[in-house]
Amino acid sequence: MEQKISLINLSGIKYLDPEKAHFYLKNDQFLCLDYDGETYENIKLHRSIPFKLPDDFISVQDMDSKEIFLIRSLYQFTPEQANLLGQQLHKRYFSPSISRIYSVKQKMGYLYFEVETSAGRKVFALNDVTRNLRRIDDGARIVIIDVDGNRYIIEDVARMLPKDFRRIEPYLL
Amino acid sequence: MKNTKLPDHIAVCFRARGVDTSKIVRYVKGDMDRQGRYVDQILAFDDKNFYILSGTERVEQVKGSKARLHVLFDASDFVERPITELGHLDTDQMVATVRLYSEKEGRLEELALASIGRTNAFEIFAKHFNRFTDNVEEKEEGPIAEEPDLFCDKCGMRYPDPNRKVCPKCISRMSITVRLVKLFFKYWPQLLMIVVFLGLTTLLNVVSPYLSTALIYDKVLAIPERVQIGEVDTLYFGIDLYREVLLVILGLLCVRIISHGLLILRSRYIAGVVPRVVYDMKMLIFGSMQRLGVGFYTSKQTGSLMTRVNGDANNVYHFFLDGIPYLFTSSFTFIGVLVIMFSISWKLTLLVFVSIPIIVLGYWLVMMFFRRLYHANWVYASRMHSLLSDALYGQRVIKAFTQEDSETERFSEYSTRVFNSSTKIGVAQNTVYPLIGLIMRLTSVVLLGAGSIMVIQGELSLGILMTFSVYMNMLFEPLGFFSNVANWWAVCVDSAQRIFEIIDAETDLPEADNPVRLDKIRGDFEVREVMFEYEPGRPVVRNMSLQVKAGQMLGIVGKTGAGKSTLVNLLARLYDPNEGSIYLDGHNLKDIATEDLRKNIGIVSQDIYLFIGSIADNIRYARPDATMDEVIAAAKTACAHDFIVKFPDGYETRVGAGGQGLSGGERQRISIARAVIQNPSILILDEATAAMDTETERNIQNSLAELQKGRTTIAIAHRLSTLRDADVLAVIDKGRVVEYGTHAELIQKEDGTYRRLYTLQMEALKFIGIGQ
Hints:
The complex is a heterodimer of chains A (173) and B (772). Chain A contains 4 helices and 12 strands. With 173 residues, chain A is of the alpha+beta class. Chain A has 2 domains: 11-92, no CATH class; 98-171, no CATH class. In chain A, strand 10 and strand 11 form a beta hairpin. The relative contact order of chain A is 0.11. The mean pLDDT of chain B is 80. Chain B is extended. Chain B is an alpha+beta fold and 772 residues long. Among the domains of chain B are: 8-141, PH-domain like (Roll), CATH 2.30.29; 525-767, P-loop containing nucleotide triphosphate hydrolases (Rossmann fold). A 6-stranded mixed beta sheet of chain B has the order 13-16-17-10-18-19, with helices on both faces. Chains A and B meet through strand 4, helix 2, strand 8 and strand 9 of A and strand 6, strand 7, helix 10 and helix 13 of B.
């Protein structure tokens, strides 16, 4: 009987085998990978599904931004390796979480936020609310993207202070 | 902004650490430490050292002065490194951050981390550092673009739109209002007329209650009583009572007729003025938009621009032609009625004053409450409309994947949200407004009671009480208007700001002060060290140099996203390079008169747009005076004639939105005909024949080959056979020219990209039995 080739085989995706991989930092800052006897220097990690599955489907790319492997999940690695990869992703996808919203002011079509984040206090401006203030995970989380492209996350809408939520409520879709 | 001299508050910190700030060559501001915490950082270098100062920059008010501010820097960390320890600096743009690193003898070292918005600044800083350490003079490599001044002087906030140095946070509403008033000043006679009409109507409205109540009750109908007390004689009463009634009724009728006549006149007048003002506003916005470069449109959503032309223009005129006249008349009515009420009975008027604050507060709360409800409704309705337009445009795909039910479900979901929010508004409106009405009615009842007591006690006549009651109701009307006028004004100013943003936007392709006029262009192109990026930090064309001689054909080859289309956009001056220059016939493109340049360049782009109109109109778009003979000749050259004449309406077939459906290849051929009829000196073909079969492509090429004689042609193609006639070929990869030469030269290169691509394509053609 003719057997159908699976789509995954057909696509040529190379899932990384955690058993064969060893990630490490060169000069404390540049990520390298030893894999099956090969060394890949200054590699880059990209999240395929950054909001919903930030720790799954991580694309490992070489210096020319070409994918060499796809990591199925960070949970497949030892805690040390997962921690190293997590730190690198955190740095690359720097998106501080917002713990307080002190003020939201609308001025001439722009929204001005003053917030407390996990990285410190921040004032930023937002353009085009419909695109840049997004509810994800069925509204449980909110992603805010400012005029510079910086991302901020409200991790749990249900746990926001009511007065903070009221400040952004009119702008939520 | 040249970052060469440290600001005083930062220089102080450097000097305190023994740095001679006069020797600082360059500095740049960062915004986080390497652990990803927000801090203010200053990176700087002089002839010996590289410095990183970290701390917090803060703005404080000068003691004793409300207006003056001064900036302070509280330093927390300072790093000093000899520049000899560092190699070349470069940036590594990550998804949301950018890092500055040094590379020396293959060793990479991260120096600083910053948020993504600092990418451009870091890149510029790195270039200056590298030039300084390499001892490269500016004249050798040309100037480095300076970082645009992106931060507001007053509040330090980043300008939301880097092309427009306006800080919405600091801009005063009053200054916008002044500009609006200036914009509307030319309509002052019309505005004055509307105010006069409204004023007269209001005056009559204020007078009529007196005629309909006090005069008829107290002067006419009370005549029998006045006879009894001897105020009017019996003879007069017997003969003229009916005449008095008739006179008052006639007077009332006159007032009503004049009032309604004025109302009709005013409405007719407004009906004439409004379209004029709306036309002027929309033309002003549309005209300003046409002035702007392509860059403006890529940074804005079409929907938002459409809203500006339509919605914002309406908001502004609505306030000026409706809001302002009503503000005058409402104020006039309010003050006039109040004066009359005071003159009738100050005691009762004071009683009315008790309810006024409650009503005003009620209206204000209602406005705040409804604003949120309306906003939510607007958001849901917008999403529903987007979904609707998405589904209508995507009908083919929906049907192909049998997703009709899921789309209906999706639409139902959004539609339900609109339904629910509309119901909420309806229920709220029908609860809140009657409640405010109830407060008014209660006030009336209380007043009637108090007034009746005063009538019994002889302090008031019945007619006067009735008149007072009518005036009181008239007083409530402007209150609703006053409660909302501030909100209305805010909406108008917001809209005006968005309109001014377009009117004031400076084109990113400015015309030179004394542009070079070129009637006839030869077509010698030289691209010199060009760098271009659509978004800061993401260069699409890097350090590119190439030459095309007049009359030559340049073929551009490269992978998708290599920067080919961007290069032709730069050659046609749809964008200006960020660095380097492009020369045409020895003149910098920026110096050539735009009109001459456009007239001499014909572009067939891969994004074909056909305007609503006939095929003939679309072909002669660039030359509306072209004869029908020329239109047909152009279509024939582009191999479009044969399919056009097959349509029942031939060249008069309507195309564009809602018109005849055309295939990709047919649209491309019309677009080629459009370029051909322009008879340009330079022809740019960006994947012009990609959607055609090989035979049609060959036919077009043969026709175009004739046309190309004596013209410079720049052609982009994935299919290398398209470029078989090219005199010279440029292979582009990641924004750089990696190979440049004739076909014969490039095919000789053993590991060359062109040779590899060519071999691959030839093998593919052989496989399907087309190649030799």
